Fold each of these.
Amino acid sequence: MIALPLLGAPVARRLRTETDKNVTTLRHRGVVPGLAVVVATDNEATLWYVRSIARAADKAGVNCTVVDLGADAGADEIASTLSLLSADEDVHGIILQTPLPPGVDGDELVAHISAAKDVDGANPLSLGRLAVGQEAFAPATARAVVELLEHHRVSLAGRHVTVVGRSAVVGKPLLLLLLQRDATVTVCHSRSQPLERYTSEAGIVVAAVGRPGLLTGDHVRPGAVVVDVGTNVLENGELVGDVDPVSMTEVASALTPVPGGVGTVTTALLVLHTTQAALRLTEELASVPTVGAGAPS
């Protein structure tokens, strides 16, 4: 058995078509959609990811500003930056990129991102709305997993999915998105040992930990669909995922590549979310009556 590659490129192309339509609508309104990415790290994998977001935004006609605060930025500086961007009418989407400097609590900082501009679903309000089925931007990586599976006609309803990783960025929101599609979901973490006890039971396995080679072909049952969310940069500069592709491709029926899989869809979604946020924000502004409107002359 040789695993079928679940490529992200065709999914991203479909998403970019929707983005292009939104950008055209916004241009007719005299609006250039704006995305701000706040960075406070020198982590090479993160910087690679941010560059990919900026390239995707530029190609789509979205103005992307990378606000690099440096790896020694403090919580107050980051919070102030997020608040200023939330109040900036030219910014429609905001991302606080992780990891953050040691000792800086990201859970508190994301609350400074306006929920209307929270295009990566980081604000607790966004996750809460997602949990109860209200309108909110889902974290782009979690949504990318679902978009990729659905595009490649991998059925989710009634399937057992094991997600390895319980972060607020991927694992927890992905659990909610999968439940909305009637999947049965197991979420694993560092205390879920032995790991193969849980991964070998599932028809679909998602690896989202950030540890190279975490999952091998021995962890899954023959014919499983495996989604690799990991983005890890080795010392030689090579970008790899959380899955060992050599052993996995001999067991799984389908596998997402790294690069070229989930990450490609994630960046396309972040740009799409930015245009969607811009549309909503401009519609809200247009509906607000001008001061003095209707007053007698």
Amino acid sequence: MPTVSVKWQKELFPAVEIDTSQPPLVFKCQLYDLTGVPPERQKIMVKGGLLKDDADWSTVGVKEGQKLMMMGTADEIVKAPEKGPVFVEDLPEEEQVVAVGHTAGLYNLGNTCYMNSTLQCLHSVPELKSVLLKYPHSGRSNELDQSSHLLTMATRDLFSELDRNFKPVAPMHFLTVLRKKYPQFGQMHNGVYMQQDAEECWTQLLYTLSQSLKAPDSRDNPETLKALFGVDLVSRVHCAESGEETSESESVYSLKCHISHEVNHLHEGLKHGLKSELEKVSPSLGRSAIYLKESRINDLPRYLTVQFVRFFWKRESNQKAKILRKVDYPLELDVYDFCSDELRKKLDAPRQILREEESKKFGLKTSEKNSNSMENDVKVLQTEGSSNASGEPSSAATQEGVPSEKRVHLSGIYELVSVLTHKGRSADSGHYVAWVKQENGKWIQYDDDNPIPQREDDITKLSGGGDWHMAYICMYKARVLSI
């Protein structure tokens, strides 16, 4: 990588490295970090004219130690006029973010839309940002490898930068650390970085964060990845041929929506995803046999992630192919039917109370029987909240035995808060985009560095069936009852 000096106005930047394996836009993003001049305003003089965003470095002919001249004006904070209407553009940048209602986009650094869309979806989780802010700068070398520590810090810093900015951010440092931790995201073809799978990026990043942000009592601690995203499954594994039956338990960070000619809706796909066939050796038969694995949800997170299994390996063409079938998904998802009997019992009372509250909100009368039942449910939940797992009074209990702090109870009902879509025929190509619900209830489409407001109706049209953007990952936020 050649090192050059860059002259801009009265300043000289003596040692700027150019990664010639990436397009000049990435170099411009580096200069944006140094000078504050956005890439679209930069005019960099090279042999033959101005440096273009998509130029080929081999033809540009930049040499080690070469001095480049850059022209362009940096972003400035414009004072709002004292009188007359105030426009968003006239506000300080930190106020622009609040006024517009969404945070910054992310520059595409060369086929990095898979990463940008993943980051925008996860950035929308305030609880995740909160726990990341508390993550220490110094590494815990005895417990965590350095690359995981660096990736966690890079995530924390990038999320903070997105919150501070209104204009696009260049995630260069995060990308560098991600590729160091997971080299597959640095794969190249004909000198260009390859498109990668957003689901793999999502999974690897969450895995790293789950290792870095570990804490004691992870399920009871709301500030852990397990509590935020982890789904506990209990499975019955049965062999019809031998009659053998065992039970298994596991934790996953997403549910799978399997797609077949029978699946038209997310609910049906989830049902298929919780059933699978596997072949293994049967002790009683002394040979391989087919087992049916049927899973149920035994514990739920605050944020439920669902992946549409749209990609598969096509042997004829020796490449990944995509299932384009339309699969509708709801703005509100109820997973009660997929839960174990044990979990359903925990969900029954909160669900009943929420139903009664909704009835009152719409002016519907409730029977005296239901009203009494609701009061009993509240008392039961308050009693549960006033003691911990060992039965000892919790710190939230007052002398009268009534919790002084409200406890959160899950209902099994979730509201859609983000959708990651893919447009194209193959996972190795195409384009990824994030569609994220803001705190004010409005939706924003994050197409790399270009945030675009959307209507709620537009979000439900991302279900597939053609060449338009179609849902690949959906993230739902739990509707909770606080008592």
Amino acid sequence: MEEGAPLGGLARVVHLLVLSGAWGMQMWVTFASGFILFRGLPRHTFGLVQSKLFPFYFHVSVACAFVNLCVLASQYSWARITFWESSQVFLLLLSLVLAAVNDRWLEPRTSGAMWALYRVEKERGLGQDAPGSRRGPDPYRQLQAQDPKYKALRQTFFRYHGMSTLCNLGCLLANGLCLAGLALGLRSL
């Protein structure tokens, strides 16, 4: 940021707290909680927990991105914006858009496909096993090979889940780059 247009003290604190809080939450949900829950819970219980966690997570991600964008954008002199300032605004706007796509479009579709999968699995007596607990042939792969409806549901679920994951990683990267830029701009530590 240019010397002539520094962020006010309160704006700097809000910006740093919201950005670092959002990034920390994204790191935890992306790299810790999902793996811990996946390895320790039965398949359908894991899905239930994720279906309750993710809408809240995406709402908070949208709110944090919006607050950061508003705080930062209101502090700039748009007539003399620097490359770094415009890059930071772009990264926060990208984070907002990706979080909103996840929140409003991808999460409901992913959860809907998951619930449809779980109904078919429940009919077949599947879903209460923990990952890695079964020996022998994988009953989910067998069901996929036998039931074209189930196979199509899995493809739909994994397509939406994959897009959601890419959006989440984009938010994580954008916020991480903003934090790195803030850290590089520190005069002392």
Amino acid sequence: MAENVFLFIPNIVDYLRVVFAFASFYYMPSDPWLASILYIVSGLLDAIDGHLARTLNQGSKLGAMLDQLIDRATTMCLCAALCHFYPKYMLFFQASMAIDIVSHWFHIQSTLMTGGGSHKVLDLSANPILRHYYHNKMILFVMCSANELFFCMLYLCYFTQGPTVLFGLGLWKLILYVCAPLSFIKTGISLIQLGAAMSNIANLDMAEREKMKTK
């Protein structure tokens, strides 16, 4: 009897991520604490689905796609909320969403076109920045976490700066300042990722055109 990939435990965890994320979005305008808790739970579930997939031998293409798209969608929805809370900085949030979505889309497509099995597994001849970013789990975790925390702290700081901890700064604002440079670096890496992916696809185009000429 064939396995039901839809009911793989890691994929069920991803479904729960969606439930908690949308519950968080519902409460974002009115209850920052409940919204934050729900968003954090969704993020924590993201940290365990990959581990479960490896432990239970339930890795799947469906799960990989779910994981990638839920990551992009939750961050995008949070940025959409920030457009409401910080209308003067709407262009910044719109640019962040566009860069995140477009760079990852191009990267995944170029990986598939060149025969790669995963967007996180890069050939040693690939861009060294992207290679270290995706192959070093600590770097990847820190950069992704800092990016999420940056946007989360922007959200919380709209309501309160948090308990005072250092130099009169609230805890949420302090975390915001610490995470901001890493978030901007991650955006820079996304642009590098976009450029590398576009270059790979353009090289495929050129190779195909050369084959057509020789025929």
